[in-house]
Design brief:
elongated; 5 strands; five-stranded antiparallel beta sheet; alpha+beta; about 290 residues; Helix Hairpins; 2 domains
């Protein structure tokens, strides 16, 4: 049976309630039926294989949950078909099957000098100056940007945060911050130079980096996890909703974030080192101190 047909039939069996309670009852019904579903699991755990009616009863209880969902949808002029489609899209955005290729080369088709190199190496060098610990980044022996400190009252290692920008390059093919530092801005197209490679996009990238770093401090800087909270990834997607990386899936952001943090921890532990940034392999790799 199609969702649309089920929804049409389900609404015919809905009983009216007093106006002040009419909108509330279906929501309360879902809560109650969810308890019934859980009760079936309890019986299955308790009785094991001897609980022969488990599938039959579970089917009934799940059907009751579906009935309430259909009625809430109808009550609010929503379509079960649309709800199911949106839900699948959301799930697929959070998951990438092995072998799937969703990588988009954002600067493909631009002149070579306006594109990120397929692979390159950078060096993070930590040193002290006037009582402050600083980090500078070198590419082919040439400094990229200015040396930075933690810019904080506490030693939280944020001086190594540029590794996240290079991670965005490796895993997502994107970083207006580094594109400017490497003189790869796409000046051949004025609107792209202004919008995608301009200050607003760079600020957005820095905001995402700070947002994730602040969040990670309550998760041991992602040292022992393989997931990033979906709420954070949702917020990241909202921040980039009007620029070219809006097509990037949540799972791709998660891979980029966790992969970058692995290298971040190596840099902190070794007080710097060499890092390979590979778009062609879509990976960021710590190469050692020397």
């Amino acid at each position: 049976m199609e969702f649309s047909k089920y929804q049409q039939e389900a609404i015919k069996t809905r009983q009216p309630y007093p106006k002040e309670h009419d909108i509330i009852v279906p929501f309360l019904g879902i809560v109650g039926e969810t308890g019934s579903v859980i009760s079936e699991l309890k019986k299955k755990i308790r009785d094991g294989e001897s609980y022969l009616s488990f599938k039959k009863n579970l089917t009934i209880e799940l059907g009751d949950v579906l009935w309430y969902i259909a009625n809430i949808a109808s009550q609010n002029e929503l379509s079960l078909e649309d709800i199911a489609a949106i839900n699948l899209e959301k799930i697929q955005d959070r998951w990438i099957n092995e072998g799937d290729d969703h990588f988009i080369i954002i600067d493909e088709g631009y002149p070579e000098e306006e594109r990120f190199e397929p692979e390159f190496e950078i060096t993070f060098k930590e040193y002290s100056e006037k009582g402050k610990t600083k980090v500078e980044i070198l590419k082919s022996g040439v400094r990229i940007g200015d040396p930075i400190t933690d810019n904080s009252y506490e030693n939280d290692q944020y001086r190594y945060h540029d590794i996240f920008h290079f991670g965005y390059i490796a895993y997502l093919g994107w970083s207006p911050v580094i594109r400017k530092l490497l003189s790869n801005k796409r000046k051949s197209k004025d609107v792209i130079d202004e919008v995608e490679d301009g200050a607003r996009s760079a600020i957005t990238e820095e905001l995402i980096t700070l947002l994730i770093f602040t969040h990670s401090q309550n998760h041991d800087l992602f040292k022992y996890t393989e997931r990033v909270d979906t709420e954070i990834l949702d917020l990241v997607q909202k921040l980039v909703a009007d620029i070219e990386v809006k097509v990037i899936r949540k799972k791709q952001w998660e891979i980029a974030i966790l992969g970058s943090y692995k290298v971040f921890h190596e840099l902190v532990k070794n007080k710097g080192g060499r890092v390979n940034v590979s778009l062609k392999n879509r990976k960021l790799t710590y190469m050692g101190k020397n």
